């Protein structure tokens, strides 16, 4: 592998940073601001794409920025492994930029300038992670990515969003401390932290106890952002963020930086041979297998669509870690190829969830019966991406999972092949009800979701982001606290109420108004035949998603200067009325008259439908012609440099 001094890796990292400045400077002109967003994303993609031919031919462009500390250089290099992550991040940022315009304006969101600026900063940090040439540089950009994405996680500025942001920082900074400790151990043991295809040679002769400790710290630290069980719970809570951010977290930057860091550790710090010699590969694969199964089971119980997608992400990310832990060439190809495969499929799914929310304010799967009539293109794309996640042929997920299956069997680890097959069935279990309900049921004849109704499936809830925090006690075991029962226990009974007070309340309310045990007026609501008890309670208590926890937005008020970063404009750039006025049903779910039938392309603006179409097309193209999409060629180049095996 030869090196060429070049400023292009540095330019790819600096362009998003420059974009942050232009976005902030144009905050009073939303059209200009978003134009800068698109131009910056396009320029970044162009620079990254220009590095692909050299990476495929074995030539690495290197930007040398000087010495960070004695013995450690701060260098950016566009090697094949880094190019996989960089090309993915720059491509999907461009697609997500268009989608964000439609989403943020469609919901009349507040603080849009901050949102677009933080998004650009996050992608810049992700590109720094991709091009880092040693553990120290990787650590620096890894922590910058955490800082840049925090404003996006806490964007709503609600108590729930701030709590999710604090949890995100706690987990990811904790993982960063572990990464730093592992980096120090590697430098102390070998005198270098530079990435070397096949691993740092001196680690093979190092004290095995120290080497295993360094591997555990590095893999565990990066595993936090990869959402491995048991350090996964920050990810579902982060679903309080706007949906494009959820796509960024799940498909592009944050969680992918975690699995990318593990890939660097396995392939370029220790190397497959040293990992096998130390005996740490199979334990890593076992943790990934447990994560795959446990998170898939938890996904079955989620009625909130974004939380179901969140647990699906936790499961799918561990496919990548599983391939890295198995170490066989075919498994390595499958794991690395699943990085872009999962990204295209999962971004499609989140785009669809966001479009559904913007147009109908519907977030719960149990409210989506017949929604395929209202949003045919969106739900068709959701169905295609779901099939890909389950690993059906001609879609991206099939190719990567096929390599993983072959790698499991070739390495004599058939148990992991069984885990992969089981996971495919579980994928069908939690995605098929969404598709089936959308196209083959109506609000009148739909059954309750989630699919699993006994305790491991959980009870139905109607708060955005799933259950209330205290109602989600131990998702791994299925044990939970009945919050409703606790609240009822805290309410006064008839014995606790003075008789005079009870009589006064009844008299004030009138003779025919029902009074409960606490002396409150009970609403006179007759249940319909098709309404479940949970739905009746939610209707009485006002517990629907938009009533208590607006799913992806807050109603921002105009500031004194009359500038809300363009929130008063619609997706077409024109002034719009209150965003709620344009929805079929303000409180989510089908309106009383049922879903209105609309044709393809009529369900939303093309700012949102265009990116959905592009993302699902990428998932199909990666399944039909993976080499034509470049990613498989880059993956094979990485595996060849690490193992010497040619595919």
Q: Any chance you could write out the topology, listing elements then pairs?
A:
Layout: E1 2-5, H1 8-25, H2 30-50, H3 52-56, E2 59-69, E3 72-77, H4 80-106, H5 112-131, H6 135-153, H7 159-190, H8 208-225, H9 234-237, H10 243-252, H11 254-270, H12 272-278, H13 281-300, H14 305-326, H15 329-360, H16 371-374, H17 376-390, H18 396-410, H19 414-440, H20 483-490, H21 499-509, H22 533-541, H23 545-548, H24 606-624, H25 631-643
Give a short summary of the structure.
Residues 492-510, 524-534 have a biased composition (Acidic residues). This protein is mainly alpha-helical.
Which short descriptors sum up this protein?
647 residues; mainly alpha; three-stranded mixed sheet; 25 helices; 3% strand; globular
How would you characterize this protein structure?
With 647 residues, this protein is mainly alpha-helical. It is globular. It has helices spanning 8-25, 30-50, 52-56, 80-106, 112-131, 135-153, 159-190, 208-225, 234-237, 243-252, 254-270, 272-278, 281-300, 305-326, 329-360, 371-374, 376-390, 396-410, 414-440, 483-490, 499-509, 533-541, 545-548, 606-624, 631-643; strands at residues 2-5, 59-69, 72-77. The protein has a three-stranded mixed β-sheet. Residues 449-491, 494-513, 516-525, 527-564 and 566-586 have low confidence and may be disordered.
């Amino acid at each position: 592998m030869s090196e060429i001094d070049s400023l292009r890796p540095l330019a790819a990292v600096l362009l998003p940073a420059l974009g942050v400045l232009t976005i902030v400077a144009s905050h009073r002109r939303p059209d200009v601001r978003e134009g800068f967003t698109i131009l910056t994303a396009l320029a970044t993609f162009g620079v990254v794409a220009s590095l692909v031919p050299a990476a495929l031919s074995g030539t690495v462009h290197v930007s040398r920025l000087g010495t960070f500390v004695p013995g450690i250089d701060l260098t950016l290099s566009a090697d094949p492994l880094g190019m996989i992550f960089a090309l993915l991040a720059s491509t999907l940022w461009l697609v997500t930029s268009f989608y964000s315009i439609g989403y943020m304006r469609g919901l009349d969101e507040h603080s849009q300038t901050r949102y677009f600026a933080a998004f650009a900063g996050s992608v810049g940090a992700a590109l720094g992670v991709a091009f880092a040439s040693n553990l120290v540089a990787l650590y620096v950009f890894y922590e910058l990515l955490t800082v840049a994405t925090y404003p996006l996680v806490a964007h709503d500025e609600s108590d729930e969003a701030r709590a999710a942001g604090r949890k995100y920082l706690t987990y990811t900074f904790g993982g960063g401390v572990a990464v730093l400790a592992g980096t120090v151990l590697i430098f102390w043991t070998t005198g270098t932290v530079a990435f070397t295809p096949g691993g740092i040679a001196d680690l093979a002769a190092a004290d095995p106890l120290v080497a295993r400790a360094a591997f555990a710290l590095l893999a565990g630290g990066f595993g936090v952002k990869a959402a491995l069980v048991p350090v996964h719970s920050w990810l579902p809570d982060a679903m309080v963020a706007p949906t494009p951010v959820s796509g960024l977290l799940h498909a592009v930057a944050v969680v992918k930086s975690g699995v990318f860091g593990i890939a660097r550790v396995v392939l370029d710090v220790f190397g497959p041979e040293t990992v096998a010699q130390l005996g740490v590969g199979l334990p890593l694969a076992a943790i990934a297998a447990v994560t795959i199964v446990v998170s898939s089971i938890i996904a079955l119980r989620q009625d909130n669509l974004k939380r179901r997608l969140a647990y699906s992400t936790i499961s799918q990310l561990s496919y990548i870690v599983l391939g890295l832990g198995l170490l066989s060439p075919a498994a390595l190809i499958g794991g690395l190829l699943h990085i872009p495969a999962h990204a295209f499929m999962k971004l499609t799914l989140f785009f669809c969830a966001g479009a559904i929310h913007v147009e109908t304010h519907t977030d719960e799967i149990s409210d989506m019966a017949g929604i395929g009539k209202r949003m045919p293109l969106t739900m068709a794309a959701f169905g295609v991406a779901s099939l890909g996640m389950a690993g059906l042929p001609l879609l991206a997920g099939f190719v990567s999972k096929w390599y993983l299956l072959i790698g499991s069997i070739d390495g004599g680890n058939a148990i992991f092949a069984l885990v992969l097959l089981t996971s495919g069935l579980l994928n069908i279990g939690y995605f098929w009800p969404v598709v089936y309900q959308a196209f083959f049921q109506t609000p009148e004849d739909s059954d309750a979701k989630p699919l699993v109704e006994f305790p491991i499936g959980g009870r139905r809830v109607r708060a955005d982001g799933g259950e209330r925090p205290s109602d989600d006690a131990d998702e791994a075991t299925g044990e939970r606290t009945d919050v409703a029962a606790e609240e009822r226990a805290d309410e006064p009974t008839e014995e606790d109420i003075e008789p005079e007070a009870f009589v006064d309340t009844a008299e004030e309310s009138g003779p025919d108004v029902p009074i409960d045990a606490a002396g409150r007026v009970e609403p006179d609501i007759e249940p319909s035949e098709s309404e479940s008890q949970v739905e009746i309670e939610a209707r009485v208590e006002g517990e629907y998603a938009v009533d208590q926890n607006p799913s992806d937005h807050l109603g921002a008020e105009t500031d004194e200067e009359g500038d809300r970063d363009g929130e008063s404009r619609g997706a077409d750039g024109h002034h719009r009325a209150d965003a709620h006025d344009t929805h079929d049903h303000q409180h989510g779910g089908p309106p009383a008259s049922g879903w209105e039938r609309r044709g393809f392309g009529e369900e939303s603006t093309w700012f949102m439908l265009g990116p959905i179409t592009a993302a699902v097309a990428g998932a199909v193209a990666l399944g039909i012609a993976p080499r034509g999409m470049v990613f498989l060629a880059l993956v094979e180049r990485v595996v060849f440099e690490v193992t010497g095996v040619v595919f």
